[in-house]
Design a protein that fits this description.
Blueprint: H1 26-41, E1 46-48, E2 58-61, E3 78-88, E4 92-97, E5 107-112, E6 114-120, E7 126-132, H2 133-146, H3 151-154
Antiparallel strand pairs: 1-2, 2-3, 3-6, 4-5, 6-7
This protein binds ligand K3U and zinc ion.
Zinc ion is lined by residues 99-101, 141, 145.
């Protein structure tokens, strides 16, 4: 898969609300492959379609231990389509985040410690699960991108 250019904060695509995916076809699979390759090349743990100039409600999250979250789980990349956050814990936790669209900067962001989420996979099958900790953080970060929200609007 080819590497896609990453939109930088300030580009209009990052301020738009993403559109619902209706066609679970080979094109969607190809976009997910290109996003995954672009995320890996940028050494990220997540990437949202608007960041590669696609307006679709789709992101990838891939946790791995890193210097800021040494106990983060090693997780195979998950493709998340048409996500919903159904419930969120009242407990908030502050943590460091980066963003491929705001290169070289780190921000302290508050996120819900636990969230109940629902989304479709690349085959269009609905998944429902509870996420906690670093993976919940990545999900919330990418979910924000699909609402046109970046770290700059959330930074403490
Ligand atoms: O790998 C990164 C680079 S930034 C990154 O991977 C973003 C995802 C992310 C990093 C940290 C917390 C939440 C989300 C990717 C983005 F911007 F495309 F969504 C990292 C940064 C801080 C803590 C742990 C890891
Ligand atoms: Zn981001």
């Amino acid at each position: 898969p080819t590497l896609l250019p990453i939109a930088l904060v300030g580009e209009p695509i990052l301020r738009q609300t993403a559109i619902t995916v209706h066609h679970f076809d080979a094109e969607l699979v190809h976009l997910a492959e290109q996003m995954s390759a672009s995320m890996d090349a940028a050494n990220g743990v997540g990437i949202a379609a608007p960041q590669v100039h696609s307006p679709l409600a789709l992101f990838i999250m891939a946790s791995r231990p890193n210097e800021r979250y040494p106990d983060a789980p090693n997780m195979a990349p998950v493709v998340v389509v048409n996500p919903q956050i159904i419930n969120a814990s009242s407990e908030l936790v502050s943590g460091e985040e980066g963003c491929l669209s705001v290169p070289g900067q780190r921000f302290t962001i508050q996120r819900h410690q636990a969230i109940e989420v629902r989304y479709q996979n690349l085959q269009g099958e609905w998944q429902q699960t509870e996420l906690t900790g670093f993976i919940a953080r990545i999900f919330q970060h990418e979910f924000d991108h699909l609402q046109g929200i970046t770290l700059l609007e959330r930074s403490l």
